[in-house]
């Protein structure tokens, strides 16, 4: 029995008990409509609740999967490329702190010194700010700027780059003798002496171009000493007590000079401190003298530089102006 039939029957019984005729269709239809409306609302409400429940469950599932953070199906994400250039330590920083060069009066520094207990010389490198040993023979003569090494062999003079022993900047074959080559103060010229049947000649090599200038024969039978003059244009040639001046550019040789010698004498190198004093390299150390030759201060050679032992050999001490 349906609800509609049950409602009709109940209405008939109620009317029959009251003893009056009524229209049975109206109340029954109204109740049926109310029942249908209630059921419709209930069904809609249930459907809405079901939809909300399903949506909530789906959301919870998505959140749970997001927490697990699985890799995507097409593999791990590619790394992010940064446009910022990473900073790197400079060669100077990676090599350690800089070491000030050993300074002498007049702004001169010890550019190079002979290494003790080993072949080679200790050279100050402006780029790194440190002294380092260069592994050449003990007779290698560094240029005042530390860039080149003049190496005198038995029958060859070679100039090599201090930072690359394989790179030869200049080379000349000749019968060498005990005449020490000398660098100009600006490290652009190297003077040396060659011997031939026509006599000894002072030659000047221009570096790094490699050009060469030769003088007329000079008096240097058994060895002599060369000294660059301050003007950078002349070289003084000492043979015992006699001396002559050689012009660097042009190759002319002057007569024995009558000009007074510098206060350091003819057997050591001289560097001007100021207008009234000189810095001399002696056999035991450095000496500051007046223009008249009076010694006002003596500075012994260092026994070690940057932890490296130094030989007290005045020949291989090289001075240069601090830049």
UniProtKB/TrEMBL annotation:
The chain crosses the membrane at residues 40-61. Coiled coil: none annotated. The keyword Transmembrane applies. InterPro entries: 6-blade_b-propeller_TolB-like. Residues 66-100 are annotated as: Disordered. The keyword Chaperone does not apply. Keywords: Membrane, Transmembrane, Transmembrane helix. Residues 80-95 have a biased composition (Low complexity). This is WD40-like Beta Propeller Repeat. It comes from Virgisporangium aurantiacum.
